[in-house]
Structures are given as structure tokens and as C-alpha cells.
Write a sequence for this structure.
């Protein structure tokens, strides 16, 4: 298999073109909606030999397909497909950061700074704060702007632990209030420590918080003209007031940092580096590619998020919403699911796809527009995965059957919908009852895909459908023949895990394409910038681990980074 590099613009473009050539024949997989698996008979587009082989494969091996793992007994064409795809995916093994950044060292967060962080967030903040601090010191930054700061975890570590002036920007005013309150508690702790050790005259940096929607490049450019304040500042009420706090063109040097900045926000950060003199460097870890605006699609804006580079535009490659959704899939998460969780995942998709048949036949006006239940299922799976991860390694033998069981009262669900209370006004789907059903699903003793869903699942499917209809504001009627729908799809239920695994394998590849587009955009600026991509987190802890790091070459940074 060919080995690809992204050290230079021509190499990056070559990699992008190879990805584009590879994915073109597989549009039937990439652009499909799995909720239509039965309705559109999606399995018929897949190679018959692949289906026959994988329908008898161990579930554990299906879950390894997105990670590029093949089995010796597979057809040669299937092995070639998986291995070629793997060769085109950007590697996710955590880089040796000490070799990349001068004087790099991570600091274990104390209990005060780490308050409220889960294990994943703590890992991310410890690593990213050390990288941002190293970059900020190298470019002699006056301040760091934390874009999409959330509750201020990164901003506060940069301010209190690394002593950088920080401005934390987030669209949610509640997050700003939480950040300020949290900063006050941390400040009191550090003040007490300074008095205890006789350094009471030391000035603490406290993050400044700004609440605004970064809807455009101009907004973020305007905010970079802020003069960083030390100590407590009153949260600004509007952008107009924000601008009154700072001095435009004051020669300040800034670093933009974003930990999983959603959608176009990561793109806007990179563009701001080019268009704002004050910004000297950017450290960006993207997220939520499904929220990216795209040229030629209904969500496109004047300045869209994909494609960024001239190279990708010239390749004439578009993604579309399904592909951008798929780019959010993580091979590491699939690999870590395990047999039981994997079976539950496939089972839930089978129920959801069969429920789509009900909507299509009996409620065609809704069946063609509502896809919200599948997204709720994704959130539920992640919730269950977190429960399992948090229980390990103390209970290595625990499975989903150990989780608390909850009764699913269909009459109560419908009465809530009809009363207009709670989630009745929420059009997002069947969250509460699906969660109850999800917890009630029984596990299978077999581990092969063939036969794992052959047990009589009809009673549970019927409950799933009735719950779904109630949550959509549709009262189940006696005219709906759930049994016939289930009998129609039952012979093909075991193929949905195969189809999903093959499709999920494209997730890391599509994310690679999006990230390479961002890197190429920066490389196309010629000698103005130094730009690299690096996997900075442990992928087993934080699968969305690739950072795009760029600095202006006149910012005093020696070229020391490597990309692959």
C-alpha cells in the first residue's frame, strides 16, 4: 500500500486526490441513510461475496473493520478494500510531543482545577494547555483567546497554571457565568496558597469571559482587537461593548486555541490567522463536521467551511450532509465497544430502520422528513458506553444486562405527549422511551452476526414503534400491522450490522479529507505560515485527537514541527 505524507502542499494534494479517487465508487454507502436500510433495500448494492462472508463473521471482527483490521478467510477484494482504506486514513497514534514542542511538559491538574472534568476532558486539557502554552511562549503572545470555551476548563488552566492572560469566548451566556464562578473558586484557592507560602503580592491572571455568537470571520476578527485584562472584569453584554474595551491595532500578539470547536468555528479560526495581524498562531482541534457549511449545499454561507483549499475545489469533490455526518464516526470507539454493546448497536439500528418502514407505509408525510430518532439513538449509545467505561476495570465481566432496568409505560408516554408537558414540545424524537427500551434489550449468547437477531424480537419492536409514534405526536392505531412489517424485514435484520460496519469504515477517511483540506488551505499561503497536523491526544481516551497547528513565520518560531 502507498504511504502518504502531508509535509508539503503537493504531497497533501496528492493524498486528497487519492482519497477522492477511492471514495467515488462507494457513494451508495457514504451517502446512504441507514434508517432506510429496509425501505430502500440498501444491502443489495453491496458485493454479494462480502455480504455472505461478513454475515457469518464474529461481531467483534465487524467492529474492527473501521480500524482497518482484516481476517485471512475474507475474499481478496474485501481485504483490499479495507486495507486500502486504512492506508488513506491519517494515523491517530499520539505523537511524541516532547520531540515536537520546545520545553514541552504536561502538568497534572490539581483537584481544584480539575473539578467538574471527566477523565477524557482532564486528559485533553492537560495536553492541550501544555501545547498552547508552548506555542504562546514561542510567539511571545500577549494573550490566548479560547474560542468556544465552554465552561472555561482550558482557559482557566492556561491562566492559573501557566500564567497566560486569557479571553474565553463562548456563545452561551450560562457558560460564561459558570466560567466566572469557577474562576472565582480557583482564584480563592490560589490566593490561599500564595498567602501560605509567602507570595501574596503575585498577580493572578483570571480569564476574561465574552459571550457572543461567532457567526462570521468579521466577528472573530473584531474580538481579537480586545486588550487583554488581568483580574476580574465584568462580562460584556454585547459585541459593541466588547469593542469599547480594547484598542484596535494596538500591536498585541495573540494565539487562538479551540478544543473541539464545532463546525465552522474551527474554520473561522484558521481564516482569522490569515486576516488578522494580531493573531500569530492557531491551535485547533475540530469537531462536529456534520455542522460544517458546504459550498453548493443549502447550509452554505458566503464563507463556507468546506472546501477551504483551492486544491479540493479543483478536485471537484463534494461531501453532502450524510458524508459530513459519517466523518464524525470514530474507529476507536467502535473498536472499544465489545461484543455485547456492538450487538445492541446493531439491534437498535434494526429497530429504527424497521420503524422507518412503519412511518413510510402509514405516515408517509412524516416518513420522508423525520430522521431524528436515529440521532437520539446515537446519544443513548454514548451514554451507555460511558457507563460501561466508568465501571471498568473493577467489573470487567459487566455487560449491558447489568444496567438498571426501567419500565416503559406506553400510556404515560402518550399522555405526556398529549398534555404538552416536558418533552411533548420537543420535536427531536423518542428520547425517553427509547432509552427505556434500550435498557430493556436482552443480550444474545452468540457472538456471530449470523443469528444474533433471530430470536423473537417482535414484542420489543412493537413497543419501540408505539413509543416512537407517541413521541412524534402520533397515536398508534389498530390499523397499523407492526407484525407484518417485522416479518417483512426479519430475514434481512442480520445484514444491518455488516452494512453499518462497512459504512462506518469511511468515517475516519472522510475526517482525514476534511482535515487535509484545512491543512492544504494553510499550506497554499506559501511562505507566510508554518502549518502541521498532529495527533495530540491518546486516541483510546479522546478519538477526535488531531490538531491543526499554524504559526506565522515572522512570529519568532523556528521550524521544528513534523506532520507525519
Amino acid at each position: 500500500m502507498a504511504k502518504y505524507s502531508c509535509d508539503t502542499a503537493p504531497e497533501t494534494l496528492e493524498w486528497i486526490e487519492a482519497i477522492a479517487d477511492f471514495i467515488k465508487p462507494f457513494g451508495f454507502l457514504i451517502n446512504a441513510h441507514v434508517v432506510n436500510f429496509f425501505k430502500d433495500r440498501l444491502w443489495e448494492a453491496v458485493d454479494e461475496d462480502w455480504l455472505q462472508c461478513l454475515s457469518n463473521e464474529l461481531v467483534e471482527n465487524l467492529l474492527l473493520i473501521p480500524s482497518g483490521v482484516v481476517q485471512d478467510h475474507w475474499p481478496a477484494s474485501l481485504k483490499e478494500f479495507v486495507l486500502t482504506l486504512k492506508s488513506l486514513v491519517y494515523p491517530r497514534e499520539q505523537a511524541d510531543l516532547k520531540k515536537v514542542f520546545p520545553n514541552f511538559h504536561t502538568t497534572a491538574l490539581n483537584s481544584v482545577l480539575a473539578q467538574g472534568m471527566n477523565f477524557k476532558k482532564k486528559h485533553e486539557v492537560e495536553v492541550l494547555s501544555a501545547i498552547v502554552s508552548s506555542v504562546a511562549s514561542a510567539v511571545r503572545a500577549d494573550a490566548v483567546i479560547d474560542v468556544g470555551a465552554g465552561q472555561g476548563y482550558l482557559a482557566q488552566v492556561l491562566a492559573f497554571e501557566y500564567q497566560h492572560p486569557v479571553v474565553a469566548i463562548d456563545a452561551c451566556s450560562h457558560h460564561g457565568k459558570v466560567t466566572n464562578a469557577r474562576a472565582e473558586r480557583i482564584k480563592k484557592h490560589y490566593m490561599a496558597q500564595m498567602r501560605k507560602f509567602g507570595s501574596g503580592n503575585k498577580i493572578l491572571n483570571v480569564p476574561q469571559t465574552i459571550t457572543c455568537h461567532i457567526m462570521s470571520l468579521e466577528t472573530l476578527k473584531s474580538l481579537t482587537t480586545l486588550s487583554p485584562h488581568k483580574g476580574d472584569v465584568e462580562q460584556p453584554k454585547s459585541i459593541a461593548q466588547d469593542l469599547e474595551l480594547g484598542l484596535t491595532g494596538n500591536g498585541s500578539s495573540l494565539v487562538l486555541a479551540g478544543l473541539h470547536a464545532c463546525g465552522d468555528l474551527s474554520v473561522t479560526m484558521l481564516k482569522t490567522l490569515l486576516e488578522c495581524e494580531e493573531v500569530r498562531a492557531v491551535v485547533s482541534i475540530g469537531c462536529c463536521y456534520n455542522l460544517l457549511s458546504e459550498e453548493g449545499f443549502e447550509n452554505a454561507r458566503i464563507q463556507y467551511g468546506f472546501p477551504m483549499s483551492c486544491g479540493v475545489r479543483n478536485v471537484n469533490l463534494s461531501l453532502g450532509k450524510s458524508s459530513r455526518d459519517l466523518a464524525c464516526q470514530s474507529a476507536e470507539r467502535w473498536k472499544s465497544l465489545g461484543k455485547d454493546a456492538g450487538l445492541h448497536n446493531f439491534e437498535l439500528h434494526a429497530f429504527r430502520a424497521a420503524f422507518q418502514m412503519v412511518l413510510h407505509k402509514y405516515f408517509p408525510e412524516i416518513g420522508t422528513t423525520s430522521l431524528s430518532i436515529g440521532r437520539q439513538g446515537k446519544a443513548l449509545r454514548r451514554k451507555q458506553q460511558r457507563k460501561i467505561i466508568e465501571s471498568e476495570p473493577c467489573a470487567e465481566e459487566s455487560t449491558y444486562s447489568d444496567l438498571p432496568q426501567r419500565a416503559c409505560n406506553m400510556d404515560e408516554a402518550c399522555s405526556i405527549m398529549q398534555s404538552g408537558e416536558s418533552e411533548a414540545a420537543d420535536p427531536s424524537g423518542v428520547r425517553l422511551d427509547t432509552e427505556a427500551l434500550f435498557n430493556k434489550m436482552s443480550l444474545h449468547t452468540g457472538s456471530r452476526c449470523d443469528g444474533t437477531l433471530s430470536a423473537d424480537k417482535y414484542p420489543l419492536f412493537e413497543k419501540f414503534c408505539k413509543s416512537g409514534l407517541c413521541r412524534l405526536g402520533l397515536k398508534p392505531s389498530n390499523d397499523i400491522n407492526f407484525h407484518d412489517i417485522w416479518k417483512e424485514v426479519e430475514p434481512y435484520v442480520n445484514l444491518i450490522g455488516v452494512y453499518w460496519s462497512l459504512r462506518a469504515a469511511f468515517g475516519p477517511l472522510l475526517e482525514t479529507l476534511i482535515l487535509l483540506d484545512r491543512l492544504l488551505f494553510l499550506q497554499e499561503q506559501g511562505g507566510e505560515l508554518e502549518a502541521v497536523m498532529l495527533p495530540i491526544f491518546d486516541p483510546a481516551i479522546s478519538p477526535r485527537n488531531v490538531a491543526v497547528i499554524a504559526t506565522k513565520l515572522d512570529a519568532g518560531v523556528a521550524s521544528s514541527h513534523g506532520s507525519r
Notes: Residues 331-362 form the longest helix (32 residues). Strands lie at 143-147, 166-170, 208-211, 254-262, 279-287, 529-535, 546-552. The mean pLDDT is 79. The longest strand covers residues 254-262.
